[in-house]
């Protein structure tokens, strides 16, 4: 542990010196059996390869790996992982969410400047013993990661906290795009975003490309860091992802003509 609870310096000062979030001291991985944790890691890798896999499709893929689990367990764990397959869903009006759903504003939109469009999402992150969730916000024009944090819950307040911290550091976007997850099809998210004078945009259900920029970034961080360096605790995970993001923002990106996200964002 980098932080010593018995040190003469307060925890607040130690965290400030180490540049880590003080809340990460109290983060504990979610409790699941080792068998379920192993199953979740496998399903996450399968989902990255094919984001259309639902419960039955996932069950078939697992069967091919000689991993035999019933639909009930697979469905529960996929929900716990905040994984939603890409396919047309039922009308959400029955769930009382219709009034919070907003149209997708990015179709045919020419994105030509920083802070024009941000995209936000949350993703399951496996650890050695447990898992956590990573929320991240990407500036679509530059591919620069403007905000992120880790948590051990899917609470909707976490999304607005990350957004407000990003705005405090980089200013606010004109549009922010998300999927139609429960965190975003809520009064809390919609009212917060609108109160800031930001336009709300949401993916169309069943569309694989609407929020592709942040989804591709999650695939990158998992394949190039998380799977290769499973964290033992919340602080290790926080520091590791922080280092990865700093490196990512300064690395040349093929999607922006081999420019660096930080250079493109800051120049704009």
Number of strands: 5
What is the CATH architecture term of the largest domain?
2-Layer Sandwich
CATH topology of the largest domain: Nucleotidyltransferase, domain 5
Biggest beta-sheet profile: 5 strands, mixed
What structural class is derived from the secondary structure elements?
alpha/beta
Order of adjacent strands in the largest pleated sheet:
3-2-1-4-5
Average residue pLDDT: 87
| Proportion of residues in helical segments | 25-40%
Q: So what's the CATH class of the largest domain?
A: Alpha Beta
* Strand residue percentage: 5-15%
Low-confidence stretches: none
Compressed to H and E, one letter per element, the order equals HHHHEEEHEHEHHH
CATH superfamily of the largest domain: Ribonuclease H-like superfamily/Ribonuclease H
Shape: globular
Q: Report the C-alpha radius of gyration, rounded.
A: 19 Å
Question: In angstroms, what separates the terminal alpha carbons?
Answer: 40 Å
- How many domains in all? 2
Supply the number of helical segments.
Answer: 9
Organism: Luteibaculum oceani
Protein name: IS3 family transposase
Domain Integrase catalytic: 110-268
Pfam family, one: rve
